[in-house]
Each structure stands twice: as C-alpha cells, then as structure tokens.
Design a protein that fits this description.
Blueprint (H helix, E strand, L loop, with lengths): L5 E5 L4 H4 L1 H8 L2 E6 L2 E5 L4 E5 L2 E11 L4 E2 L6 H7 L11 E11 L4 E6 L8 E5 L2 E5 L2 H6 L9 H9 L14 E2 L4 E6 L2 E6 L4 H4 L8 H22 L2 E5 L4 H12 L3 E8 L8 H11 L3 E5 L25 H14 L3 E3 L4 H4 L7 H10 L3 H14 L3 H14 L15 H7 L16 H12 L15 E2 L5 H8 L14 H6 L6 H4 L8 H10 L1 H9 L2 H4 L5 H8 L7 H22 L1
Parallel strand pairs: 14-15, 14-17, 15-16, 17-18
Antiparallel strand pairs: 1-3, 1-10, 2-3, 4-5, 5-6, 5-7, 7-8, 8-12, 9-10, 9-11, 12-13
Helix pairs in contact: 7-8, 7-17, 12-13, 12-14, 12-16, 13-14, 20-24, 21-23
Length: about 575
C-alpha cells in the first residue's frame, strides 16, 4: 500500500472544470471530484464527506487515539461527522495519522488544506496560470505543466546555511510546502498559512508530568498503542536496526503488536561503523531474522541524487548503498513498509547540555532536585558537578529561553552569506512567556529532524514510516520535563525505563553511538577528481553560493580529523547532484 498521490486545483471562471479531462490524462490519475472551481485527482480512493455546500476530503491514513486504524474509503458517515470539526479540520484531540485533509466550501468558494502534525503526508502548493494547485509531489505539478525547473538560488543557499531549518519555502522557484501541523486557507485566489497544531500546547509548565512513574507509564502505553496501530496497517516490515535505543524500541513494539519483522543493519569497515554486536543482541532477543550489509563505495554514484523526486536536496549520497540493501531485503520478504527509529533522539529529548539543570532551577528553584540533575548531567558529560551547575545558572538567569539556531557557513561564499543574513523564523521557536529553555530546545529538535526523514529512493517504492514522529508520541514526550530524560545519568532515560523489560540490557544501557564517518572519508578520497569537477565547475560555484578556493582546499584534506569537512563536502556534492537532476527533468 503506497502513499496516495493527489493533485487538487482551485480556480475561478470554470477554468478548472474545463481542463479536468486534460489534466487527469496528463497526471495519469482518476478524477475524484470535478466541480466548476475545484478539481481533485488521486491514484487511490479518497475519503469524501459531503454536507450541504461543503465537502471534506481525507487523503492518507488516520487512527483513533485508542490506536484503532480507520479506513478512508469508504468513509463511514458517523466517523466522518466525528473526525471533522465545524471548520473542516481534523479533531486533533481525537485522531492522528499521516494525512492531508481538504475542505471545499462551495458557497464561498473557499479551500482549507490541513497537514497532520507529523508531516507524514507530503503537501506542496503553488499558484500558476490563475490556478492554485495543491499536491503530494512535484512530479504532478510538472506533468500538468504548472511547474518548471527553475532553481531558487537564495533558498538553495539558505538550505545549505541552515541545513536543518525547514520552512514553507522549497528550493524550486514558485513551489511551497504546507509545514507539518499547518493549514493553508485559499480565498478568492489568495492563500495564507496558519498554524493549526502548536507544540507549546503540550510543552508548557502546567502540562508537565508531576512524577517520573506517570511519564514512564504513559510513554510505554503510547509507544505500544501507536506503533501497534501502524503495524495493523503494515504487518510485514523491514526495520532498520542500528543497535541503538530508538530503532530497538520500534522493533520491539512492532513484534509485540504481531508484525513479521526483518531487521537490517548497515556496516562499515571501521569499528565505529560496525554495530553488529548490538543489532544482533536485539534481533536475538526479539527472535527476528536480520540481514547484515556492508556499505560499498562501488554502489555510490555521487552524480546521482536520490532526492530527484523532492524539491529540496535532502538525499545523502553515502546512503545509496544502504538504500539498495533495503530494497533488496524488502523484495525478498514481500514487505509492506519500512519502519525506522528516526527522530528518536529528537522526540526523546537527547540533550548534551546543561539545559535540564537550567530548567529545573527555573521550575523548582535552587535545591536538592537541581543538584541531583546537575550530578546526572555531569555523569553523562564526564565533567564536574560544579562546572555544570555554574553553566546552568548562567543559562537560566542570564539568557533568554529562546533556542539559538546556529548557521553553517562552512565553505559558503562570504558575500552570499552576508546577503542572506542570519535571520530565520519558525513559529515553533517562539517561546511563550515564562516557559523553559530546555523545552525550547526540545521543540527545536523536532524541527531539526524533519529534513532527515526523506530523501531515499526506497520511499518511492514502499511507505517509509517513522513511528516515533507520530503525534501521540511527540505530544506525550513534550509533556515530560527535560530533567526526567537524564535521570540516572543516562540520556533518553524515560524511554529506556518505559521499555526496561522489553529490551536486552546491552541496548537499554548503551551509551555509545556509531556512525559512517570512515566511509564518508573514503568516498571523498576516492572521488576527489570528480568532486572537484562537480563543485568548482557546477551550479553552486556559478551562483556564488560556495567559496571556490575554500572548497578546493577542503577537497585536498587528508586524515580522520577532517571528517566533519568531508561530510560538508558531500553535502555540497549532494546539492549539486540534485540541481543537475532538476535541470535534466
């Protein structure tokens, strides 16, 4: 079951109605609704709920808060009446999922489009030729002749300068995105974005759990029911097992829900990238089969972008080898979907700072509780309690609670960076008066992960589900005070405690993390000449986005201590490959 592809067109003067057959043929999809000023195409049945003068459309997958899945086709009238609010949006307190909801008010010719808070269902929009178009992927906009291949160089540069800050602007001229948890209101051809879901509704002081035991119990129940709901729709899975906590929780909950799970762990030749010991531990504990596949530079083509289906350069070339492995394993086991542990660090508030201490100081004042948290943070950081307490006091009382978003100017042109400036905005980063800096950072982490949840070829073949980003799990974790997440001197401690009897001790108490740093270094060293040609003679250089001399020097760097620069070089290469894909399509 693939994600639904859809395209909605809104325009006045019968323009849309007259082009319905032509547009459907170009898009290769069926007409779900054809009205004088509104057209909806989809490649799967669409949930439709009609009232006098108003019609609501539901695209995607939706679940009740009790974890039960619901079918959008046919959409039961009684359920539909309960799902949609008077305004036409989804009752966020009752339902969650991966969906886009569209409300068409025929009397006033208004359109409201709501995207779920997890952002699991893609939703882009643009205005062209007197028509406002809303769709699941940029290919549809191109197929019907609305979108060209013009690159927005300012947004491309901004994407590289703030690589983890996702906004409504894409890197293609004219194409925008409805952010997760937002709605788009279209009236008389004018469109306006409005925030529908606010993380601060769950992250405010008054929403906090009063004791760790309640947080542990609720998180365990929420993880179990939410991942179980996903399993009810996708019973045969390939789960990426890094041997870390997050993917292990996903695998354990999926197995408990009755899924047929096959694990896959990716390995590099270096010790830091070989996590088979931990991956085998969880696979053996859960009694599931597991495949072990080595990353291969031979399977990596730096000139190919696996983000060619996306309007941003989100693919990572070093993941191409692993992508092939996922597709092969999924084919062999006839998988319904890929499940990942992506977002776990972000949702479970993995903080490597004194913010939990600062939060507790501001919440409880100076006392034993703050000193206990200081000791726990000091243990995690392997430093002194006094140093942690001193830094936390400064952070609590001498700085504003807002999260400081750090730009990444490495290898970018100074002139370009100065023109961009350091300004950025996202409504989730606006901290209400009296709220805590650790929670501001927690919410910022939820933004930071969004650009890492897509950009793989496998997502064009089967659904790639990131269960830990599901709305009920995120909301539960936002209610957990930041200092609970470091209890006992362990990061993500509430999540560990929630699954303490469902995972082996080697996973529950693991503190190290592996990574493919050595593989990245080999990719750069092996492809220096190609990288030099791509970057110094490519679009980024011609648009003065990169500093050619700095890039040239970075390509020549040798040794492990330059791994961070090798990663940056590959980020630029991935962007260059994406630009080439856009121009050739």
């Amino acid at each position: 079951m693939k994600r639904v592809r859809y395209l909605a067109l809104s325009g006045s003067g019968n323009l849309v109605h007259m082009r319905a057959v032509e547009v459907a043929a170009l898009a290769g999809m069926e007409v779900a609704i054809n009205r004088p000023n509104f057209l909806l195409l989809a490649d799967q049945p669409v949930g439709i709920f009609s009232q006098p003068g108003r019609t609501a459309f539901l695209l995607g997958w939706i679940y009740r808060r009790d974890g039960a899945k619901m079918s959008v086709d046919p959409l039961n009238p009684a359920d539909a009446q309960d799902i949609f609010t008077i305004e036409g949006a989804i009752h966020l307190e009752k339902y969650w999922g991966s969906y886009v909801a569209i409300l068409h008010d025929e009397d006033h010719d208004d359109i409201t489009v709501v995207r779920d808070p997890s952002g699991g269902m893609p939703c882009y929009y643009m205005k062209s030729q007197g028509v406002t178009a809303i769709g699941s992927d940029m290919a549809l906009f191109r197929q019907v002749g609305l979108l060209g291949s013009a690159i927005d160089d300012e947004q491309l540069g901004r994407h590289l300068y703030f690589p983890n800050l996702r906004t409504s602007r894409t890197c293609l001229a004219e194409l925008n995105e409805i952010p997760a948890g937002f709605q788009l209101d279209i009236q008389l051809g004018k469109s306006e974005l409005e925030q529908r879901w606010n993380p601060w509704d769950y992250a405010r002081r008054q929403e906090y759990y009063g004791e760790p035991a309640a947080a542990i119990s609720d998180l365990r129940a929420t993880l179990t029911s939410t991942i179980g709901a996903w399993v009810s729709r996708f019973p045969t899975l390939v789960v990426g097992l890094s041997g870390g906590l997050d993917s292990s929780i996903v695998a354990a909950a999926a197995v408990q829900a009755g899924a047929k799970v096959t694990g896959l762990t990716l390995v590099t030749d270096e010790t830091a990238g070989d996590e088979r010991y931990y991956a085998r531990a969880i696979a053996n504990f859960l009694h599931i089969p597991m495949e072990e596949v080595f990353f291969s530079a031979d399977d990596t083509d730096l000139e190919m972008s696996h983000a060619a289906h996306l309007p941003r350069p989100l693919a990572r070339s070093f993941a191409q080898s692993g992508d092939q492995a996922y597709l092969a394993v999924a084919s062999a086991v006839s998988a319904d979907a890929f499940f990942t542990g992506s977002g776990g660090d972000n949702v479970f508030c993995f903080q490597q700072s004194v913010l939990p201490i600062a939060d507790r100081l501001l919440f409880e004042g100076v006392g034993r509780g703050a000193m206990v948290t200081a000791a726990e943070v000091a243990e995690m950081a392997e430093t002194s309690i006094i140093r942690c307490a001193t830094l936390a006091a400064r952070r609590a009382w001498l700085r504003k609670p807002q999260y400081r978003w750090k730009p990444k100017a490495d290898l970018l042109s100074r002139d370009f960076v100065s023109r961009l400036g350091a300004e950025f905005s996202h409504s989730w980063l606006e901290v209400p008066i009296g709220e805590l800096p650790g929670k501001a950072a927690h919410i910022a982490y939820l933004i930071q992960i969004q650009n890492h949840l897509e950009g793989f070829r496998r997502e064009t073949v089967l659904p790639m589900i990131n269960p830990l980003m599901s709305q009920p799990i995120v909301e539960t974790c936002l209610r957990i005070p930041s200092w609970y997440f470091c209890m006992g001197g362990e990061n993500r401690s509430i999540a560990r405690a929630a699954f303490d009897s469902r995972l082996p001790d080697s996973i529950l108490h693991r503190r190290t993390k592996g990574g493919p740093d050595g593989f990245l270094q080999r990719l750069v060293e092996r492809n220096r000449s190609k990288i030099k040609d791509m970057l110094l003679g490519g679009h980024l250089a011609a648009a003065n986005i990169i500093d050619r001399s700095a890039v040239d020097a970075a390509i020549k760097l040798e040794g492990d201590r330059h791994n961070h620069m090798h990663f940056r070089i590959l980020e630029l290469v991935d962007a260059e490959a994406w630009v080439a894909a856009m121009k050739s399509s």
